[in-house]
Design goal:
22% strand
Length: 301
């Protein structure tokens, strides 16, 4: 049988499939539905230092082959997560990624310090959050801003640090190289694309914040292109995500160089998506006499 094990930043995952942040809760919501032995890791709900209520108004809006979300990082806060959600998440079996966001570098730093003292396996640093000191421009848009926040968070933790990149970056390759230079152990990409929708009856934008994040199969070919570009440019491992819903999709990202993949929006349509993708990858490997993922990783580069 195919060996699905993956070494990600020095940690072994039993499969290359990870439940993506914001779509998998803290994992427990899926434990009675999914065989967690097929899930390599769970990236928990995006955390901020203090809890957030999230955005008002419409939060989810379906589009052809996609989903626009305006959740607004609703979460219980880092301290609450450590005390209440982490123990149950740890008991599920898959590796634990704590997804960390922030509104200032200082809140990123404090959140990283708190998580460093726990048994989370990875910190996934979400730099798509708005830099309030720069007028709300996301840290993940400009490479110099990203370099600063990553380098400062790097000093606050010895945990494997995986930086989650926004596709809205000015230059995705420059962004990836800046994060690598700043000390990132790995990269995950892509986060959602900035998008919007208009309510024809109200004749106004659907979302209170006007713009929101597009995910789902509609973005997959663009996400794949960006993962390919980044894998050609950096030496650290890359986790690919963006519209992955099937084993075929996941294998494309792995052949583009991804060490592992995350499943996000597909979980809403198919709660067993992570398990189905992992099983499908194993079936494809068996059918093609591929013993390990190392045999095909980066084959298309």
């Amino acid at each position: 049988m195919a060996d699905l094990r993956v070494n990600l930043c020095g940690k072994e995952l039993r499969t290359p499939v990870i439940g993506a942040s914001g779509t998998y809760g803290f994992g427990g919501e899926f434990s009675g539905i999914v065989d967690m032995n097929w899930v390599g890791a769970v990236s928990g709900k995006g955390l901020t230092l203090e809890g957030k209520a999230g955005n008002t108004g419409v939060r989810l809006y379906e589009t052809p082959s996609g989903l626009i979300n305006s959740i607004g990082l609703q979460n219980p806060g880092v301290r609450h997560f450590i005390e209440h959600e982490l123990p149950a998440m740890r008991a599920l079996g898959p590796a634990v990624m704590a997804n960390l966001g922030g509104s200032t570098i200082e809140t990123y730093e404090e959140g990283a310090r708190l998580l460093d003292a726990t048994d989370v396996d990875f910190i996934e640093l979400n730099i798509s959050c708005p830099n309030v000191k720069a007028g709300g421009i996301a840290y993940g848009v400009k490479a110099d801003s990203a370099h600063e926040v990553v380098s400062r968070v790097r000093k606050c933790t010895t945990k494997p640090l995986i930086v989650k990149l926004s596709p809205n970056a000015e230059n995705i390759t420059e962004m990836a190289l800046a994060c690598e230079d700043a000390g990132a152990d790995g990269l995950s990409l892509v986060n959602t694309f900035q998008a919007m929708a208009i309510d024809l009856d109200k004749r106004r934008p659907v979302f209170d914040n006007v713009f929101a994040g597009l995910s789902g199969p509609a973005i997959r070919p663009i996400a794949l292109r960006m993962v390919y570009q980044v894998c050609k440019a950096v030496k650290v491992p890359v986790v690919g995500l963006g519209g992955i819903a099937t084993a075929h999709d996941a294998l494309e990202f792995i052949m583009a160089g991804a060490a592992a993949v995350q499943i996000g929006t597909a979980n809403f349509a198919n709660p067993r998506a992570c398990e189905d993708v992992a099983r499908g990858v194993a079936d494809w490997m068996d059918a093609h006499n591929v013993a390990t993922l190392d045999e095909i990783r980066g084959a298309a580069l």
